[in-house]
Amino acid sequence: MSDFYIDFDFIEPGYSPENFDFNFGTMVYYSYVLKGNSNNFSSIWVYNNKMYVGSEGYFNVVNLEDNSLYDCYGEVIIGRANEPLDNSAIVDINVS
Length: 96
Description:
This protein has one helix spanning 27-30; strands spanning 41-47, 50-55, 58-63, 68-74. By secondary structure, the protein is mainly beta. It is globular.
């Protein structure tokens, strides 16, 4: 799977993008391995054979090589970095 990047500027005052509906194909499958109660994702990155997904209260990392949950963070869930989320409002993520 190749990396992709679409830049939406939701922070700029007055910014109003068109309505975008993305078809992630196998994303339906991945939503079953994600922690959390919502299918409303605030941010998705695909980088280095991992898919990073931010949703209300959770930050998930899916290993695309074996379709497994690699890491997860929440306000009460401590991920691999041994830290929880500061709050549940995930607006954007930056992966590098």
